[in-house]
């Protein structure tokens, strides 16, 4: 069926508690990457005027929301979590249609939003500061959190509900108002999250949702004088622009960017378990995770066994439309990403001259010809300095690199510009702890893959992965709040800290 024959729904922006069209009068299409004949819907192609309206709405709502007691703010997050749980299957199916990853994974994406809603809801009755003894008599000292202000959020397409929930729930419980612009490839999932917050009773103007391109909507959002914090998840190139945009006005800037993550398989590791971890890490979400395991460093003693089992298992993966419960890997999210993946495969074969162990092609048969499908691809005998082992591909391509020892494996693992996630397979606790200490990443796993972070621990990385901030866990509260130190002197006289010498 052609796109023209489909009953297509048009979705609006959400500004000041109302669903309204863009002032531009333009829309863009949201296409199913597994079947490009299917049009999911049309979304607003917003411009600076829409952004200004959204920021103004956030500004008008800021004082009332800031003064709403945190436990009351938290109750709305709890309600949103309950509603998300009720709507989980419907939202997961819509996410699979717009993003492509398989149902088991989109259910997990929605579940992460549920978990984050409940977790940050719990923080509404904590938001802990400190109390501490003052150095003067009859004086009390403490610290509290206060909201940053209006937060701009720009989110990616690979986790189109989970990542917006990481940002929104933490910002909201801290008392901030927000404007969120989702990726143009996956706006429906973020819209569903915002609609859920509306249904949970969120006051108008507290969250505003604007769709559109980076230049037309994202740039004016970042540059707006009333925005005090920019939270961005995406590529290093765009992240650098975000940082440069935030710098002149000293806006808070949070960047979560790329990864070139590694699994270390030592000679005493469980090879079969490591193979399953490498399959999940390399081809889960079609390799479109910032934590994807695109490198596997394997000790030479078990290298041959590993690559034979790894390639054999990859060949069995069922690739197709993720709405089919039997499918294990979906398409690339869009044509541009698919072409990037195919280009890196060509680099691996012809420039790097690595050994292609399996895959390497776009799938164009009758079942796959309308989608952006690439075979699960593995390169062997990869040198750590090759481009396919250094650059983020963001697709189902894994490089297997031989090593001589634990120290050699760690050296290879650290030898990239990113530092997000790493894993080791070993039965030796001493080796495991050595790798935990020496791998310079923000996340580390032992006898598991590089993906699967949980909402109650900090998420983020080192080096070019980010700029030092963390999402999730209580670390997110430090991102979306400012510390205020308070001193209460009830001595009835002027006491001068560091000057008065109290003798008792």
Structural account:
This protein is α/β, with parallel strands linked by helices and 504 residues long. It has 2 domains: 3-257 and 466-485, Aldehyde Dehydrogenase, Chain A, domain 1 (3-Layer(aba) Sandwich), CATH 3.40.605.10; 262-446, Aldehyde Dehydrogenase, Chain A, domain 2. It is built from 15 helices and 22 strands. A 7-stranded mixed β-sheet has the order 15-16-17-14-13-19-20, with helices on both faces. The chain has a 5-stranded parallel β-sheet with strand order 10-9-8-11-12, with helices on both faces. A 3-stranded mixed β-sheet has the order 1-5-4, covered by helices on one side. It is globular and about 80 Å long. It starts with 9 loop residues before the first strand and ends in a 15-residue tail after the last strand.
